[in-house]
Structure prediction request, 715 residues.
Amino acid sequence: MHNILLIARREYLEQVRGRAFKMTTIGLPVIFALVVGVSYLSSIGLGANRHVAVASNDPVLAAQIRHNLLGDKQAKAQVIVAAPATPQDRALLLSKVEDGTLDGLLWVETAPGQTPAASYTSQSAGDFMTTARVRSALNHALLDERLTTNGMQQSAADALVEGASVTTYQARKDGAVVRTSAEASFWKGYVMAILLSMTTMLYGMNVARSIIQEKTSRIFEVMLSITRPSDLLAGKLIGVGAVGLTQIAIWLVAAAAILISPFASAVLTGEFAVHLSWVEAILFPVYFLLGYLLYSSLFAGLAATCETEQELQMYMPLAAAPTWLSFALILVVINDSNSVWSVAASFFPPTAPVIMFLRMAAEIPPAWQFAVSIGLLLLSIWGVLWISARLYRIGILMYGKRATLPELLRWLRYS
Amino acid sequence: MPIVELAEVTKAYESKVAVDHLSFSIEAGQMFGLLGPNGAGKTSSIRMMMGITLPDSGSIHLFGEPFQRASLRRVGYLPEERGLYKKMKVIEQLIFFGQLHGLHAADARQRATDWARRLEIEEALQKKTEELSKGMQQKIQFIGTLLHDPALIIMDEPFSGLDPVNAKLLEQTLLTLKDQGKAIIFSTHRMDQVEKLCDSICLIHQGRAVLSGRMREIKSRYERNHVIVEFEGSDSFLRSSEIAEAKNFSGHAEIRLKPHGDAQKLLHEASAAATIYRFELVEPSLEEIFIQTVGGKVDA
Prediction:
């Protein structure tokens, strides 16, 4: 144990004193803040300021659609109406869409007793926001028209189709009811999941890189004459893991300081209300540590079989796969954090850390699910470590040639 | 009591037998040369002595007891594949090695400073390893090996890459350590160094010991059939019927006599043809014994 701690201490001090540690401690949160900020700001103006024409043989319906489109404050649309419109008018407006004078044309054709036929033509097939707004304006206008045709007063019909704003609250298990927003929860979960997956991968790869560097510098044989390979591996995992925890501690303290500041309480209200619970603050380092141990044990074994960092790069897709998988499930998890898929992914060890954090952003899962998730992670860490320790023990003394798969399988059989 | 004792040690990797029933022992105060061409099994033997790999059969005793890791605290090992932590300060690195060997940090620092003074590299202690020349790094590795005052020192090709001045300094240090009663194993394919420094040798070829024992005793087994002649004048005597092979370096000739060749007759012929400044009948060098023994199949 004495040697393991000495090796861990050396590893810790070398990394914490390094430039990379200082840069990532400051740089990563700044980059994430920028990414999230830019994503949010760019989403505000998405599909806005469009110049749209509404053409129909029904002037009342066309006017109602225009009214609805102009009523959408976020759209800031300019709407011209051509009604009653002829096929010649339609052709003229379409030519304006083609030359870019107009962003889109909504053509609606009605006939008594039949469902109206509508088409929307625009230059950009991917402008889904404008398409959605146009569709919504049309449907509301049709509903409004049918209600008034059936004898309802115009004002009553308008009131009926107008949507109500919903203020969201979260009822917590401790009995507290806090104002929150689905958007803020999504961003919080998203940022924490990215930070978790990035740090897990970063430090997992750090272990691998450090093993390759030591292999290149030929220090291993000196070290193996003093200490066991298992002590070397354990010391390295502990040392690098402690560096990651130090970084996370710095981030958590900084986040807490920002959240309790008067600036944050002024800004992070209403739809931006962010609540970081104690459970999240405690489980973030726990899941980091478990995720890190899973990744780093796997990559320690693989790195021992490599000669250069370039060779190690071959395994990068393997490292990134759980992250891709986790983020592919992000919408499923955020929308229904208790669905079968969400729960299964939070139990599956490679995706468990990130998915559990995404689930926690929506709702804190029951304690037994944490226990299963952590238990399965510990079990898989043990299994991966068992394999990696065998690869590591032999791989670190193998120079000059890349190990083949049959060789790796033979190494696993050595006792 | 032997400090190291190998008895019938065998180690095979896949189908290749790296060490084949190897036996030898080393006493305190002895400098022991482990010789052999590349791939002969020297490093494999040393790795088993250090517990880095385990023998398939046979036994290894260190300090009179069957191998146990605890004994390694009394061993200093400088492997051929050696390295240092590049980003670490030299003094911190030496303290780290000392602590791994069971020294207290303050003690390790004091010893590292003393050794650095002795090997004339005090100024390197506060630098990072990557700032040092290869020779200086080798001296640091040398200090790291000796810092904990081991009773057994194992050095695999310790002089490779060193300039003559530093090689001499390390040679002197090793001789001093030997005089202090340390057992030293010196693995190399540089015969001249072994001949100069070692009391005993074991020559390994294809994993087997083909020659072992005290240096004097081994050399005495071979006939004194080598002659060195320094001369001025005609070299016609080099075509004498007593000579099996001769190399002439403009006035300096190295001659191997035929079996039972007559050295006195050759001296007579040489003095008749040229002025002789030196005529010396010498025993074969270790290199010649080595080549004779392994049949010239040396890729070293």
